[in-house]
Amino acid sequence: MSELTDLYQEVVLDHGKRPRNFGPLEGATHRAEGLNPLCGDRLTVYAKLDGDVLSDARFEGNGCAISKASASMMTGAVKGRTSDEIDGLFRKFHRLVTEGPAGDEEELGKLAAFRGVHEYPTRVKCASLPWHALRAALAGKGEPVTTE
Q1: In 10 A of CB 129, how many CB atoms?
Q2: Backbone phi, then psi, for 37, in 5-degree steps?
Q3: Cα distance between residue 1 and residue 80, in whole Å
């Protein structure tokens, strides 16, 4: 394995074992639940919007290391962004995990650590679940989102 691949694996494992932004969010203005029935991932994403800017995001729940790491890194990456910026970040991340690197991942920062997920189709759902839940929360959808 390359040093870069090793570094990416370390980042994902670290966030999976010690997730950041974990726990409920006091004063959340939006929330949504996500479920991956195949893997058993179940999480709730909380968001606090100030106008159109996401001032804070957190999550809680249980899941595999990939879903926890994705939620941990996502909640850090979206803070301070507008809904449109978050949607653009989601599209880049989703393309990365479904199709692989396209050479324009610099905006993803540490989220690029998920570049190898596209090689494992069942893991794509784990990595993308928090993002789908965040988008549902921001859209005000009440029903849980699922990867199925």
Answers
A1: 28
A2: -60, -30
A3: 35
pTM score above 0.85: yes
- Tokens (6 digits) for 35: 């479920």
97, two tokens: 């995990």
Give percent above pLDDT 90 in the chain: 76
Which of the four CATH numbers 3.30.450.40, 3.90.76.10, 3.10.450.350, 3.90.1010.10 does domain 3-140 have?
Answer: 3.90.1010.10
Q: CB-based contacts of 80: which residues, under 8 Å, 6+ apart?
A: 53, 54, 55
- Contact present, 131 and 93 (Cβ < 8 Å): yes
Sequence spans of domains, the chain: 3-140
Q: Check residue 3 and give its pLDDT.
A: 58
